[in-house]
Design a protein that fits this description.
mainly alpha
Length: 83
Amino acid sequence: MDDLDALGRSLLNSKDGGAIRALAESREAESLARALGPDAGREAEAALRSGDGEKLKALLSGVLSTREGRALAEAVSRLGGEK
């Protein structure tokens, strides 16, 4: 848990931290969270901790199969390219 918590803090404290927060609080993120259900976050965390690549791939596939998930993924991919 410490590694994931440290990664989260690092991302939020980076130059893109404000944009990451805004994306996490966006209507798309809220809609996606409702669509994925209450256990999606715990499932993703468990897969990350155990190194279960197949489970992570399945979860990501589910996210990207939604309009909201694709919109968020596109927004995240643009973060690194902004100057």
